[in-house]
Every structure is written in C-alpha cells, then in structure tokens.
C-alpha cells in the first residue's frame, strides 16, 4: 500500500489514483484495448461499482476496476505494487468472486460471461523477464486442448526486459513504471493524473482512507500486543514490568488482563 505517500506524490501506479482514472471509460476502454489488442465498442460499469469501494474488510473484495463490454465480457483490472507471494491464488479468488457476482444476479452457470482478471505489476511476478504472462486452463496431457471455460488471467510486468509485446503496450507499461509519456494515449493519461491530483474531493477521500487504514493498523497492533502479553502471563515467567516493556502495554492494561483471566473460568461455569 502507498499510505506513506502524500496525495500530490501519487502516480498512476498507485491503485487509488489508478482506480479514479479508470472509472472514466475515455481512459479505461483504450487501456483495455492496448493490453488485449482488441477493439471494444463500449464499456459499462456494473451497478454497485459506480463508486470506488473504500471497504477495509479484508474478507470482502475491493475491485480496483470492474467493467463489462458490448461482447458479453467482464474485466477486472488490479494495480499491484508490492511483491505478493500469493498472486496466483489471488487471481483465483478474484475470478471466483466475479463468477459469484454474476450468479447472485440470477444467472445460470451456462450464462457466465467471458472474463479477464488483469494484474498490472510494477515488478516481475514470475522472474522471467517478460512484459506479459497470460494463463488459461488447458489439459495437462495435451496442452493444445483448452478447457474452454472462457477465463483468462493476465499479469503485466512494467519491468520486462524482452521485446515481447507490441510497441503501444510497451509505451503504456513504461509510463506506468514512471517514464515520461511516449505517445498520445500516455500523454492523456499523464494529464488525467495531474487533473485528478488537483481534485480536492479525491484528496479528502485519500486522507480519509489513510486515517482509516492507520486506525485499522493500530487496532491490529494493539491486538497483537495483547495476545503476546496474555501468553507471557500464562507462562508465569515474567514480571509485569517486563511484559510492559516488551509489549508496550501499560501496567494498568496488564493488570486488567490478569483480572480478566481470573474471572474467565467462573464466567464459563
């Protein structure tokens, strides 16, 4: 996450700003066309996705961008800045949520739309130097046989070193990686970034998101310190002052933990 960044320092590679810009089909449509090398007549944003979801619930799905096109296809685009070891399983999770979203609307599974889960990475997720990694389900015994489940997972790597993608896609990846615009589309994206950073509403939303994440982090930190203190009390080897020094909890908080542990057995009975 980019929570240590000032709003004015954000770039298109930060998912907050990326989400804002891609909410505009003027940018999102050519972005998808550049990645997939297809023509899309129009895109639409499914109901309920009109605003960027700032949910902090780790179990919910917060899509950076979720759009559908005229050809019965849905796209989920995610900006990835950190090296996550679980990226493949994350795409599996996102794919499942896209399918469940359609099923929840009363569709039969035979009506599931073709779907793309696209991760735009500012690092090489597979360490092979490619700009583009495309995955689909195929038969292990005969790789020429596709499962035909109409799903694809695409990883883009802004740090690619091979000449393996079309020039327009390479220019787009270069721009996301922090280089200056090299064509008309990346120039428009650059202007959209600067325009978004002048928007006071988005600045306020970003600040609110920072505060919310800070509070969430602090809650998690305090919960972790409390659990550590409980384990140390249970071990019976540490003085209260030692536990306070190690965990950062006050002596009063430690005393409260001791009292609650004494009361716990009677409350169960």
Q: Can you tag this structure with a few keywords?
A:
6 strands, alpha/beta, globular, 269 residues, 46% helix
Largest sheet: 6 strands, mixed
What count of domains describes the coordinates? 2
How many strand units? 6
Q: Low-confidence parts lasting 5 or more residues at pLDDT below 50?
A: 48-61
Radius of gyration: 24 Å
What's the pLDDT, averaged over the residues?
A: 84
- Coarse morphology: globular
How many helical stretches? 8
Helix and strand sequence: HHEEEHEEEHHHHH
Report helical residue fraction: 40-55%
C-alpha termini separation: 45 Å
Q: Please report which band the strand proportion falls in: under 5%, 5-15%, 15-25%, 25-35%, 35-45% or over 45%.
A: 5-15%
Q: What is the SS-derived class?
A: alpha/beta
Instruction: Give the neighbour order of strands across the main sheet.
Output: 1-2-3-4-6-5
Oligomer: single chain
Notes on the protein architecture:
The chain is of the alpha/beta class and 269 residues long. The protein has two domains: 192 residues, no CATH class; 53 residues, no CATH class. Helix 3 links the parallel strand 3 and strand 4. Helix 6 packs antiparallel against helix 7. The two termini are 45 Å apart.
């Amino acid at each position: 996450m980019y929570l240590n960044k000032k709003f004015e320092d954000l770039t298109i590679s930060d998912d907050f700003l990326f989400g804002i810009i891609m909410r505009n089909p003027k940018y999102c449509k050519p972005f998808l066309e550049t990645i997939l090398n297809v023509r899309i007549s129009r895109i639409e944003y499914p109901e309920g996705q009109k605003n960027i979801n700032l949910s902090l619930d780790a179990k919910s799905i917060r899509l950076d961008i979720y759009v559908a096109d005229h050809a019965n296809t849905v796209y989920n685009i995610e900006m990835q800045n950190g090296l996550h070891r679980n990226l493949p399983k994350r795409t599996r999770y996102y794919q499942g949520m896209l399918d469940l979203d359609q099923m929840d609307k009363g569709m039969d599974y035979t009506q599931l739309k073709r779907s793309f889960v696209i991760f735009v990475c500012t690092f090489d997720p597979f360490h092979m130097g490619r700009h583009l990694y495309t995955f689909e389900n195929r038969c292990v015994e005969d790789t020429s046989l596709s499962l035909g489940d109409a799903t694809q997972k695409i990883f883009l790597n802004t740090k690619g070193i091979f000449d393996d993608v079309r020039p327009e896609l390479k220019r787009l990846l270069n721009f996301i990686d922090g280089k200056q615009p090299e064509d008309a589309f990346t120039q428009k994206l650059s202007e959209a970034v600067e325009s978004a950073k002048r928007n006071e509403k988005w600045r306020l939303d970003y600040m609110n998101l920072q505060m919310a994440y800070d509070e969430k982090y602090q809650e998690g930190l305090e919960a972790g310190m409390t659990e550590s203190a409980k384990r140390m009390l249970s071990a019976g080897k540490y003085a209260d002052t030692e536990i306070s020094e190690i965990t950062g909890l006050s002596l009063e908080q430690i005393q409260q933990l001791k009292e609650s542990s004494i009361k716990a057995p009677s409350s169960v009975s």
